[in-house]
Write a structure and sequence with these properties.
It contains nine helices and no strands. It is mainly α and 211 residues long. Helix 6 runs antiparallel to helix 8 and helix 8 crosses helix 9. It binds protoporphyrin IX containing FE (2 copies). One protoporphyrin IX containing FE binds next to helix 2, helix 3, helix 6 and helix 8.
Length: 211
């Protein structure tokens, strides 16, 4: 099938409605989420430092809150921003068909081919409205990591009221590790993601201005 070979499921080549690569709701929720994530990560690191799970602590210069209580206040304040904004993004992503159009299907063979092309500098970015297979995988992956971190966060926030949720993760202690590992995955994503945004500055402009 020639359509498969170009990774171009029929509808995505048509110019997006209104000519914008990313509709306004995507751009707003994306940047609100970026802010909320930075607040959650840096306050989370300060919380971690009060009782480290591993042999290291995070340098104080890059944590938020100053001490445990301050960090918890930041964490529980920014949590609302993160969750409300995330719900809007996911609801609209599902309702408008954006997720279905842009993030699936993900075929392993295409991920390998596109990853190889990316590492050898041969990956085309000429149509910003179509994500390559590696982008799809990373974006879907980070959305799922976001869901896991919120659920595990709720489980360790209210371990009594949300007993079933905590049990789902294997209990309070396990949920804490899940929460930490999801943070590590999200931070790993952000590092690659921000580098790519500056390697392909047109994509950054499209996420800011829409074009
Ligand atoms: C609804 C969302 C969230 C809730 C309810 C929540 C709740 C919590 C709670 C209660 C703790 C304290 C755990 C303890 O006592 O050790 C915590 C720790 C932490 N959170 Fe969150 N969190 C949420 C989202 C996030 C997000 C989005 C991130 C980062 C991407 C994050 C990163 C961390 C980190 C790194 C820690 C310290 C880990 C530890 O040592 O246990 N959290 N969170
Ligand atoms: C300063 C930090 C950030 C920058 C500069 C940035 C930049 C961008 C850019 C340029 C795009 C469009 C990329 C493309 O055409 O492939 C994008 C999309 C996206 N970013 Fe970010 N981003 C940042 C933070 C984040 C964070 C913290 C997350 C989540 C944890 C995130 C998740 C996503 C997702 C899921 C998409 C796809 C959205 C969609 O098409 O619906 N970004 N970002």
């Amino acid at each position: 099938m020639t359509i498969e070979a170009t990774h171009d499921p029929v509808m995505t080549t048509a110019p997006p409605a209104g000519g914008a690569v990313h509709p306004l709701w995507v751009r707003i929720t994306h940047w609100v989420n970026a802010l909320a994530m930075v607040l959650m990560i840096t306050s989370g690191w300060e919380i971690y430092n009060a009782s480290p799970l591993f042999e290291f602590v995070f340098p104080r210069e890059i944590t938020l809150g100053g001490w445990l209580a301050g960090a918890l206040l930041w964490h529980f304040a920014a949590m609302w921003l993160l969750v409300v904004n995330g719900l809007v993004y996911v609801a609209l992503g599902l309702a408008t068909g954006r997720f279905r159009r842009k993030l699936v299907p993900i075929r392993p063979a295409e991920v390998l081919a596109d990853a190889k092309a990316a590492f050898t500098g041969r990956l085309a970015h000429d149509d910003l409205s179509v994500y390559n297979a590696v982008q799809k995988l990373l974006y879907l992956g980070v959305i799922l990591a976001g869901i896991v971190i919120v659920l595990s966060g709720l489980a360790i926030w209210k371990p009594i009221q949300m007993q079933e949720l905590a049990a789902l993760f294997g209990g309070y202690d396990a949920a804490r590790y899940v929460h930490f590992l999801a943070m590590a995955a999200i931070v790993g994503f952000i590092v690659i993601h921000v580098i790519m945004a500056f390697v392909v500055p047109r994509s950054l402009r499209a996420m800011i201005t829409g074009r």
